[in-house]
Amino acid sequence: MKEHGSGTGTYILVCAALLVLTVITVAVSYVHLGTMNVVVALLIASVKASLVALFFMHLRYESGLVWGFALTPLFFLVLIIAGTLSDTLFR
Amino acid sequence: MGKHHGEGERTLNDDTPARGYLEERGFWSWAYTLDHKRIGVMYLYTTLFFFLLGGVFALLMRIKLMFPGEQVVSNHTYNVLFTMHGALMIFLFIIPAIPSGLGNFFIPLHIGARDVAFPRLNLMSYWIFVAGIVVILVSLVRPMDTGWTFYTPYSAKTSADVTLLSFGIFLIGMSSILTGLNFLVTIHKLRAPGMTWHRMPLFIWSMYATSIIQVLATPVVGITFLLLAMERLFGVGFFDPAKGGDPILFQHFFWFYSHPVVYVMILPAMGVISEIVPVFSRKPIFGYNAIAYSSLAIAVFGFFVWGHHMFVSGMSGTAAIIFSLLTFSVAIPTSVKVFNWIATMYKGSITFESPMLYALTFIFLFVVGGLTGMFLGALGADIHVHDTYFIVAHFHYTMMGGTVMGLLAGLHFWFPKMTGKMLSEKMARTAWLLMFLGFNVTFLTQFLLGFEGMPRRYAEYPPQFQALNIVSTIGSWILATGILIMFANFVRGLFRGEPAPPNPWNALSLDWKTGSPPPTENFREIPTVSDWPYGYAGRRP
Amino acid sequence: MMSGPGAHEKAGIAAHEASHMDPATAREAATLGIWTFLATEVLLFGGLFTAYVIFRIRYPEMFYEDHLKLNRVLGAVNTVVLICSSLTVALGIAAIRRGKVGLLRLYLFLTLLLAGTFLGIKYVEYTEKFHHGLHPGTDIFFSLYFALTGLHGIHVLAGMVVLGTVLFLAGRGKYSEGYHTPVEISGLYWHFVDLVWIYLFPLLYLVG
After folding, report:
1. Does residue C119 form part of some domain?
2. Nearest CA in chain A to C198
3. What distance in Å separates the CA atoms of residue B427 and residue C40, rounded to the nearest whole number?
4. 3-state DSSP: chain C helix, strand, coil percent, rounded to 5?
5. If you measure CA to CA, which chain C residue comes closest to A72?
6. Rounded to 5 degrees, what are φ and ψ at C188?
7. For a designed S-S bond to B116, which of B2, B186, B308, C48 qualifies (C-beta 3.0 to 4.6 A apart)?
């Protein structure tokens, strides 16, 4: 873990961004976009998640090894969803 | 070039107790220990106990199976017997034995460290394991009759105490996760100076790959059993067609863990073999990189194939074809290892001490098991033999002929290091012969039974299968005798074994460069490593 | 004699730990350790997320109708609460990095307050649902809702226990500018709990 994480100012900015994105995602949910609702919601959620991971969890300052540990489970999450879908979608 | 007893550097002070890490006595010195060696020993005792208990259930099953009707025990009792045999063997013996037993003991020694990265977490993992055992044993008041796979809908509805058992298995899983987590960080961070990744013993590569699987797959079985408990307690309905759920979803979740977990079972055993074969061939391991990387490949590919347990479940044809194709891919890294072990022995100077006997047995029996696995990966063949004794024989060849033989090889190899005593080679060989014969009589007949159509998990079977069943049961008695003689050898060794020198096998890894048994701090000074541990006969990688 | 671990055993443990890793390695090991643990949590929740995907595709109308019955306002408030609690944890860690123990304790206390608020709001939501006869088992959507938010809620509770312990130990002077690893790794766990909710909120409350 690096000694210098982000500073207090950065944390407050990130929090503000997260709150703004929350407002946006709630607002968009009241608009009927069909399938795009899910896409937009997940996109915004992913931006928020990235902000939390990069700044609050200081992935931004971590080594490649830590990035590997952080991202690998996502691959396997996709795998279990895809594998199960390969069954349920094609019955 | 023979082996010389007494060779090998001692790295001990004059005031190091002769019994090393075993010197301190008393209940609390074990229960409250942070020494990875003691934790490993506790895991070994616990898991070997359940090996024997699970074996007793197996013997009872085989006695019943000599008779085709509802004889000896009731059909319901038979269902309980095979469920308990499977569940105990898998969750309380075969998954933890090599990783948490031998792995805990030897990983720090192999990499030149004083302990694992998180010793307190290590101790906690053992006591969580014990807590899980207690919960599972309490659940036996209303014992399981679902098969160790706990398929819904039956497991959601049976009066057996599945809820409590689910919680018990959840705890066992937590223990497994903590062990894997500890090993991953240990291997990354605590290697001795000069020990690059390519100078690590192959046992460490296999334990690293195993730990990846433990960390990523076990949580899925955790949520699976949580959902099963929720089904029974709250009727959530994810697996209940009447509520819009899907019973096959349970199987997807269950096998997403339970297929990779067979690689948790086999990879450590393969690691043990990779340590033993070079020592008793007096030759460097052939294809170090291939064995190292194939371990990682097995760990990863093993996650892609879980659907091959579900070909006849009602899964889609598309998924079946995809999983069948992927299943064949996992054979490739596995067979790479087998070729490398054989190439190691080629033109080596081979001797047949008991560790090598068990290692050779592993290679032979595991190849049989693995090849029959390839038959099962083929859709057409699997439909014919699914849920028959062919499957039972397949997994006993891989799990018992494979993992158990690997464990026994490791126990014989490392008994002098762990206890400071030597085993009786004569007893070891007698036990081995009976086990080898008994095992094949028991399980080869089951390939035939399965191919001819005898279903598994059936208490009653058509009378034409009785003859082979009787043969198989007789085999189980020969196998059991061999196992008992081996345990007698262990007990004898503990109390009356010859004192062991630091390096009785004249091996090169760091564990053999410290005392037998090692001191609590493992090494007087942490060594600086400049070479790989396979430089037998002075050959370079 | 089973009289409990004596001073001798405890001293042995302390010596064992002290001789083990140098501080830099210990910090890096702790970081890898907590990220590994978080990886397991991804897969734990992953099973439920998989179930969500499967059943959402299968029952689009049920998901649409049912999600409207959830209290979007309370869900949004809870999202804000958790985001702010991540901020307070981060500020607390920034404080202890400058050696300011008192500030750390303040921010930890605020975090616990916000976490408690989160659970309080969930309690209100749950009782409201039960009052309307909506509970786990009503249908697949509500089973998923209760399973996902319930599992998440348990993690919030566990996080409160962890952060509460850190707060207590901070009061005993355990942490300083030079050593505050447990604070950092507890913080990482807490941010992860926030992360899961960042996905749960839209998937359950916003998109039918």
Report:
1. yes
2. A45
3. 44
4. 80, 0, 20
5. C39
6. -60, -45
7. B186
**How many helices (H) and strands (E) are present in chain C, helices listed first?**
7, 0
Phi, psi of C174 (to 5 degrees): -75, -25
Q: Could you tell me which chain C residue has the CA closest to the CA of B236?
A: C137
- What pLDDT does residue B411 have? 98
What torsion, rounded to 10 degrees, do the Cα atoms B376, B381, B387, B389 define? -80
Q: What is the largest CA-CA distance in chain C?
A: 66
List the one residue out of B11, B17, B2, B91 whose CA is nearest residue B54. B91
Cβ contact (<8 Å) for A87 and B306? no
Nearby residues of C18 by Cβ (< 8 Å), 6 or more positions away: none
pLDDT band at A35 (very low <50, low <70, confident <90, very high): confident
Q: What value of ipTM does the predicted structure carry?
A: 0.93
Nearest CB to C87 within list A7, A12, A22: A12
Beta-bridge mates of residue B388: B455
Inform me whether the C-beta atom of residue C179 falls under 8 Å from chain A C-beta atoms.
no
CB atoms within 10 A of CB C84: 19
For C194, the domain range is: 21-206
Structural domain count, chain C: 1
In this complex, do B249 and C33 lie within 8 Å of one another by their Cβ atoms?
Answer: no
Q: Note whether A59 and A66 are within 8 A (CB).
A: yes
Q: Does B223 contact chain C (CB < 8 Å)?
A: yes
The phi, psi pair for B535, rounded to 5°, reads -80, 45
- Give the best residue of C188, C189, C204, C206 to mutate against chain A (max A CB count within 10 A): C206
**Which amino acid makes up residue B220?**
V
- What residue has token string 């291939």? B290
Minimum Cα–Cα distance from A65: chain B residue: B188
CATH code (residue C187): 1.20.120.80
In the predicted structure, residue C39 carries a pLDDT above the cut 60:
yes
Give the pLDDT band of residue B16 (cuts 50, 70, 90): low
* Nearest residue to A25 via CA among C153, C145, C205: C205
Q: Is B265:B99 a contact under the CB 8 Å cutoff?
A: no
Position C4 in a domain: no
Chain A residues with CB under 8 Å of B246 CB are: 88
Q: In the prediction, which pLDDT does B82 show?
A: 96
CB pairs under 8 A between A and B: 43
Q: Is residue C152 part of a domain?
A: yes
- Within a 10 A sphere around the Cβ of B94, how many other Cβ atoms? 26
* Angstrom distance (rounded) from CA C134 to CA C156: 23
- The rounded mean pLDDT for chain B is 94
Determine contact, residues B259/B288, Cβ cutoff 8 Å.
Answer: no
- Taking alpha carbons only, the member of C79, C163, C165, C87 closest to residue C122 is C79
pLDDT tens digits, B478-497: 999 999 999 999 999 999 99
* Radius of gyration of chain A from its Cα atoms, rounded to whole angstroms: 17
Of B28, B217, B253, the CB nearest to C5: B28
Interface A–C counts its CB contacts (< 8 A) at 124
Close Cβ partners of B534 (under 8 Å, ≥ 6 residues apart):
B278, B284, B285, B288, B508, B541
Per-residue tokens: C11: 């001293």
Instruction: Mention the CATH class of domain B31-538.
Output: mainly alpha
Tokens of B527: 């060594």
Instruction: Tell if the CB–CB gap between C140 and B119 is shorter than 8 Å.
Output: no
Q: Is the pLDDT of residue B18 over 80?
A: no
Residue C18 contacts A where some CB pair is shorter than 8 Å:
no
CA-closest candidate to residue C93, choices C111, C114, C115: C111
Half-sphere exposure in the Cβ direction for C202 (13 Å, CA)? 26
Distance, CA of B247 to CA of A87 (rounded, Å): 13
Q: Is residue B282 helix, strand or coil?
A: coil
**pLDDT value at residue C148:** 97
* C58–chain B Cβ distance below 8 A for any pair: yes
| Percent of chain B residues past pLDDT 90, beyond the cut | 94
